[in-house]
Amino acid sequence: MMPMKEAVSLVLHHSSASSSVSEIKLFSDSLGYVLAEDIISKENIPPFRASIMDGYALIASNTPGEFDVVGRSVCGDGDYAQQLQHRMAVRINTGAPVPDTADAVVPVENTKLLQEADEGETEVKIEVLKKFTATQNIRPIGCDVHEGERLLVAGNLLSAPDIGVMASVGHTQVKVVRRPLVAVFSTGDELIDPTSDARTGAIRDSNRITLILTFKKHGFQVHDLGIVPDIRDKLYDTFLSACEKADVIVTSGGVSMGEKDYMKSLLVRLGAKIHFGRVFMKPGKPTTFATLEKEGGHRKLFFALPGNPVSSIVTCNLFVLPALRKMSGYKQASATIIKAKLGFDVNLDPRPEYQRVRLDWSSSNENNESYLPVVMSTGVQMSSRLQSMITANALIVLPPRTQSISRLHRGDVVDAMLIEQP
After folding, report:
1. SS (H, E, C) 270-286
2. Which of 37, 94, 158, 309 lies 20 to 30 A from 87 at CA?
3. Residue in 217, 179, 151, 180 with CA at minimum distance from that of residue 25
């Protein structure tokens, strides 16, 4: 069996086939994609001198003293054209253009209204109560973004603020790394669709929908190829169809040692290279990973996952999602691992084990001993019991049992791999 660390390394090594392929996206559709180009601003922000305060634009050297209010400058009205003379002021709103001949903005609270007209609608004369200096309360042209500035760097994973920055400079078409397409199907004569009536010897297929929605949640487009019976030719034809539709093919079932576990032999028949077919881990030992080199340098990745529901989704998190992230251009393809304290005692297995847990910050600092979260078990950890994933937001990474250590205790510190938002 292949060691876990080596298996993950092999997957990531072969998961770069689409990293150099880009596509153009509308900026509003680019969230979660990786930039394939630098974003350079073609304009200044602000494009004019803008007021920081509600107040009066004037010539600072005239302050303090009385001023005639000769006009208004409000957001969206364009530049205020009138030339200001000695002791003239323009009423101005936050963000509005500052008149060319004004060099300061005095906040309303530093003034006194002396005269008004039109039943209080028009200000006529004010008094500035203190001395102001040139440039006070004015944002100069380009102080936020200047023309030619590099705003975002190729390789960035686009967040909502990143897209907001692009919107602010009118960059509405963005080149991103293309995400790989995924095809999913389940295998097994015993499987029936979740919408079918129960029958003796049949099991409803939960793996396929769990995998599909996991991929969709992470932003990947998925082709659902359904349930395929344990018939060699039908399985082979489905593999051929999947290769036409997708970059990554994910299956569940058919990888153990049963007489109808055909996946490995069919991958060989397809011409794929199997990199591993058994991994030193729990759950998920029969996990199989293979690649197929197609014409034009296009590489197909195959993940034949175990049929047990927990084994399927755990190995998806450990192998498939990191591969998809790597192919999408992520700098950090693997999931985040943090330190956490056990909230229960646990016996160690001969293999490294990935138990489903819930991270709990609320109880972690009761005695001010640590700022680490506490991991709470989600219940029975059988690989057939999908309920253990319902409240799980992490997988704890338990080391294999040794002669000196066979059990970990409550309060021991372990690694926890995040699989959901805490």
Report:
1. HCCEEEECCEECECCCC
2. 94
3. 179
Q: Which residues contact 197 (CB under 8 A, 6 or more apart)?
A: none
pLDDT band at 303 (very low <50, low <70, confident <90, very high): very high
The SS3 assignment for 235 reads helix
From residue 341, alpha-carbon distances to 134, 374, 390 in Å are 58, 5, 21
Helix or strand holding residue 199 (H, E): none
In the numeric block, which tokens belong to residue 132?
């102001």
Distance separating alpha carbons of residues 400 and 422, to the nearest angstrom? 26
* Per-residue pLDDT tens digits for 395-422: 999 999 999 999 999 999 999 999 987 7
Q: Where in 188-266 does DSSP place strands (E)?
A: 191-192, 203-204, 222-228, 248-252
pTM of the model: 0.89
**Bond before 46 cis per omega within 30 degrees:** yes
**Rounded mean pLDDT of 1-29?**
88
Alpha-carbon distance 323 to 125, whole Å? 69
- What is the Cα–Cα distance from 147 to 421, expressed in whole angstroms? 38
Cα–Cα distance for residue pair 265/258, rounded to 1 Å: 13
Residue 121, pLDDT score: 85
Strands 273-276 and 288-293, sheet pairing:
antiparallel
Amino acid at 143: C
| CA-based nearest residue to 250, from 276, 218, 225 | 225
Going by their DSSP bridges, the two strands 150-152 and 413-418 should be labelled as unpaired
- With beta carbons less than 8 A apart as the criterion, state whether 223 and 182 touch: yes
Q: Tell me which residue has tokens 């603020």.
A: 161
Q: Distance between CA 168 and CA 44 in Å, rounded?
A: 10
Q: What angle do CA 122, 127, 130 make, to 5 degrees?
A: 140
CA angle 104, 105, 108 (to 5 degrees): 155
Given the structure tokens 């002669």, which residue do they identify?
403
Burial 306-316 (b: 16+ CB within 10 A, else e): bbbbbbbbbbb
Residue whose tokens read 């200001």:
84
pLDDT at 151 over 50: yes
